[in-house]
Each structure stands twice: as structure tokens, then as C-alpha cells.
Amino acid sequence: MGYITTVLTAEERARAGPKGGAQAAANVALDPLGGVSVVIDSVPQGQGHRTVVAQVVGEVFGLPPAAIRVHAELDTGKDAWSIAAGNYSSRFAGAVAGAVHLAAMRLREKLAPIAAAALNIGPDEVRFADGRIFAAANPDNAIAFTRLAGTSHWSPGSLPDPDAAALRETVFWTPPGLDAPNQTDEINAAAAYGFIFDFCGVEIDRDTGGVRIDKYVTMHDAGRILNPALFDGQVLGGFAHGVGAALREEFVYGEDGSFLTGSFADYPVPTACEIPSPVILHCEIPSPVTPLGAKGVGEGNSMSTPVCLANAVADALGISNLTLPLTQSRLAALLHDLIRHPRGSGEPGGHISLDSRIQSLDSRIQPSLE
């Protein structure tokens, strides 16, 4: 929250009190029949939160993801939450899934001594896998997870420590280093930073101004990848948004102030036909800050793709000043102006004609694309 308060002056912040951090909350519970349910404080809009949470908790307890019930319908009247709760800033993988992992681990730590007493082994010898809890040295010495997980409900008096029932765990987690801004507005805006490297090749139709993306490569280091399919889905979604912002989408107003692009007939959102399949590469360097080593990937290409495409078009045309979006009409007007009025030697692009620059670029780029 700290970087949001930099819109205030230092004096205004001092009156309001310091604000910082990015707390996430999660609750993991066992029901009387040994089922596992999770409540998170981040409401998804199709990103796959439930899938990842079920996977994270399943790995802790040795259960299939289908056995985990995940509730993302946050009720601030009864569910664990804080003012920082929510689905924003690519915080799910690092903060929310991390809080889920911590809660599940604490609950497993409570289950371990209960299992150890039932199996007549030490707590450090207890293992969880394949829906069973068993002894590390003798896997046949086992009990079903559902049977043991319901013990604290049905028979708390039989527990080794009746005050240590394994029923539920709630975790509030906030990363270190997210302090309030100082007097000079200096602020660490995120706990973990992902890294992106993009490059692309484009072709521009010299008559229509249309831009075709020949090849687009994007590499991401977003820490530990929790679910590869959902990770790549986030990259593809951000890429589609980035292509739209770079080449098509624009708010246009008339001279009288009327909004001229208020429908999808006039506001051209790209469809699957206009979005090529990028080459997605991964560089997985876990974060030392977050519980699972994840950094977040949701916003990456929505920021990097417009810049990458703009740089490619600028390079192709030999100019350095472009305004997004690079619509066909805008580029066609620019191209025709360049042809009619070649730039002088002191201007970007020099005195070489556009056709000559294109031919020169073709000779250098084509071998690399092939």
C-alpha cells in the first residue's frame, strides 16, 4: 500500500499516519470427514486461483487437487482479510498462494504428532503422500488421511495433547521491506520483482500502414512457476492486451468532446486473428522473499509488448518519435509523408530514402528470421 500514498504530500501522510505493507490472509481447515477446505482473500476473474491453491495445499498434504475445496467468495464479515486484501499488483502467486502454503504447513505440523501417536513413530518420521499418512521407514505402517484428519472433530480426548487439535489454521502474511514512503517519497513498491525480456520482428505494409508481427519472443523470470499452463496463459493474455494497446485500441473524441469510440464497432479490440502465438521462454529464479519463491507474472506483457512493438516499428522506419497506438491510418499517413518528404541528414533517418532503408533492413533481417 505504501506506493499508493505517494500521491499525498509528506505533510498529508504524516497527518494520516504511516501506511505500508501488503498483507495476505488464508485459512485452511479440516472437516469431520477429513476433507480440506481453503478460504483466500483474493477474488479471481478467471486467472485460476482455485486451481493453484488446490495444487499448493494438495502438495502439502499428499492429496490430489480435486480433494481440496477452495472458496474465493470473500465475506469480510466472517473471513480472514485485511485492508490490503484483493486481486491486484500480480500479488496472488507471491502473497496469497504463499499465505495458503504457510497455513497448510502449520496444519500439517499439528497433524504430524497426532499421526505419530497413531503409528507409534516419531513426528519427524511422518510422511504425507497418495492420500495416506505413513512412516518414512515403513510405508505399510499407514493410516488414511481422511481418517486421521477427522480425529480432532470426533475424538479430541484421544489426542496426545487435547489442547493441540488439528482443526484449522489462519495465516496473515506480509513481506518484509514494504515500509511507508519517507519524507522524499522514496519507496520500495514491491516485495519481489519479476523480469522480462522481449524481442520481435515486424513487417509494415508501405501502402496501408498495416503492421504484421512476424515473430515475437518473450522470456520471463517470475520466480517459481506454480502452474505452467496458467503461467503461460497469463503471458498470452498480457501479450494480447499489449498488442491491442500498441496497434489498435484508442479513445477518440470529436471536436465537440463527444466520445467517438464507445462501441466495439469503433474501438477495435484485437481478436485471435490478429494475435500471433509468441514464443514463451522461462527463466525460473525463485524469490528469497516469498514463501513459495513466486514473483508474479500477471502484468508483464501488458507493459513490455507495446514498448517492444513501438521500438520495432521505429527501427523499421528509421525514426525515433512515435505515438501509440500505431493504427493503420496513423502509420499510412506517416509513411506517405516520409516518401513525399524525405528527412534531411540532420534528422532521424538521415537523407536516405524510405525504400533504400527498407531494402537495407531486409538484407540484414531476413537471414536471422529464417
Account of the 3D structure:
This protein has a four-stranded mixed beta sheet with strand order 3-2-1-7, covered by helices on one side. Strands 4-5-6 form a three-stranded antiparallel beta sheet. A three-stranded mixed beta sheet has the order 8-9-10, with helices on one face. With 370 residues, it is of the alpha+beta class. It is elongated and about 90 Å long. α2 runs parallel beside α3 and α6 crosses α7. About 3% of the residues have low confidence.
CATH class of the largest domain: Alpha Beta
**Could you tell me the mean pLDDT?**
90
How many structural domains?
A: 2
Number of DSSP E strands: 10
Largest sheet: 4 strands, mixed
The rounded distance between the terminal residues' Cα atoms is: 48 Å
Question: Poorly predicted ranges (pLDDT <50, ≥5 residues)?
Answer: 345-354
CATH architectural group of the largest domain: 2-Layer Sandwich
Q: Helical region count?
A: 9
Alpha-beta classification:
alpha+beta
CATH topology category name of the largest domain: Aldehyde Oxidoreductase, domain 4
Strand content: 15-25%
Q: How are the strands of the largest sheet arranged?
A: 3-2-1-7
CATH superfamily of the largest domain: Aldehyde oxidase/xanthine dehydrogenase, molybdopterin binding domain
Query: Considering DSSP H and I runs of 4 or more, what fraction of the residues is helical?
Result: 25-40%
